Amino acid sequence: MQSRHIEKGLYPPFIINALITAITLVFLALFLILPLVVIFGEAFREGISIWWGSIVEQEALSALRLTLIVAVIAVPFNLFFGIVASWALAKFDFWGRNFIITLIDLPFAVSPIVSGLIFVLLFGIHGWMGSWLVKNNIQIIFAVPGIVLATMFVTFPFVARELIPLMTEQGSEEEQAALTLGANGWQTFWKITLPNIKWGLLYGVILCNARAMGEFGAVSVVSGHIRGETNTLPLQAEILYNEYNFTAAFAVASLLAFLALITLALKYFVESRINKLETL
Amino acid sequence: MSISLENISKTFNGFKALDDINLTFEDGKLTALLGPSGSGKTTLLRIVAGLELPDEKDNSKILFNNEDVIDKPVRKRQVGFVFQHYALFRHLSVFDNVAFGLKVKKRKERLSKSEIHEQVFELLRIVQLDTMADRLPSQLSGGQRQRVALARALAIKPKVLLLDEPFGSLDAKVRAELRRWLRKLHDDLHITSIFVTHDQEEALEVSDRIIVMNHGRIEQVGTPDEVFHKPATEFVMQFLGDVNVFHGRVDKNQTLLLNNAKEEANVKFLVRPHDFEILLENNNEENIFPVKAHRILTAGVMVKIEFVDKSNHLILVHLSHDSYGEIRLNLGDEVFLRPKQHHFYDN
Lengths: 280, 347
Known about the structure:
heterodimer, A: MetI-like fold, B: five-stranded antiparallel sheet
């Protein structure tokens, strides 16, 4: 009797409870599920063959290829530098450490458009290094290198953000123990540090990859929108949409949405893995 | 292997953690580094291991037997280090934890797989964990983890075993058990061992020698008996157990004068609670205090009595149950205390 009394005080009445749940569900449906349904609905509206036709169309394919190239370069780069940066920041204490941790968040803090403009200002024809680049016949802006650079910049924080708290919490005692047991630095990293962070690392890589493939703003500024050359999937979707080619636009968008779903599934799997490890 | 430290100092951001330490750890002995937190004992242990570097001075030396290892990195010093929080490899099984030091050796020094297997199980049998070889550290109790850490440290056949507060995070019962077990292990293996502790009881019970440290300096080096019965400084006496502090006077012709008249005092007298005699009458001896029984605690191995003197000064006395039964003391009774043993230190 008493416990029911207490429970009554703890939880809101049924009506309010139901109302809150309903509002949440409606909100989720409207803002998350409906757009997804619309994307796939529009993409397949004129049948699967038209959808397939829009995908294998040359410009779409080249956009897909460019998107994959960018991810294949940017993600490993961020993986490597993310690990190095987190290792340095989490396992050592030095002057300016907190400032650098804040600095890592810079790409998150500034608008993607500004991120893109930074690279235009640096490498564009009228930019700081522009005349030198022109003289040496190197093109960065309105070309693939610029897109890769902008994507790397925008996605830099994902891995580091994930690893710094994890590595800080784990401390460096296990590494010290490995050293006293005769392991060298390399062995310590591969056998101790990396296995301890692998799930967090994978999580960071998944998020980094999703953003690398989906980034629009920064890439849009540096790309130049050259069809079949410097368009990534998000840019291609926008161009098609602006040309009232809705089916094709949504077909390309459905690829990105599909990618997002895979990312979510992977993320879910990795998260449950991490939770399981933590409860052990 | 004996270990000698010469002129070792360590400064952290201007804080002197170790102040010019000169010390020898004898071969085959189990030595305790005893002191309060912040006394530099852990820093000293980590410097021996090579996990911390001493301040750079030309005459600083860390001698393993007679070889100066000050420039040798940790992994080449061949020290077994047991961390306070075990620092077990969380993703490796008990077996793989213990085998780690054997597996990371260079190929030509490395044992075969079956030899490693054999050695690891031998160690696991010593620490009584051979049935748990497949478990992960998270599936073990604190005491078991500590034993895995010890087996792992012993696997590399270390020249010296260093233990940092090895029982610090265990509950009292397991602690006492592991303490005896460590002593027995040491008696079997005879490996030079140094362990850090802030628990005087632990140090007195387990070690062959005790080094008492305070503020980055060594206060006393000696056997447990020596540091307990002949504390070299007031700090050592205070740190190794309860004490009552009195002010007194030592003159040329007169040995002592115990009272609380601070003006004339030139020394401090320290008396342990169990070093008092309780007299029911004043027999006109010198150095006797009239006191009143203020509080009596009979639950425990000893009877603990708190007396107050004239100036409301608290005096703690420990008495065996037998002696307590003889004097039949009640709260509020006025009796006299005579110190049977005391130590005095300059004021």
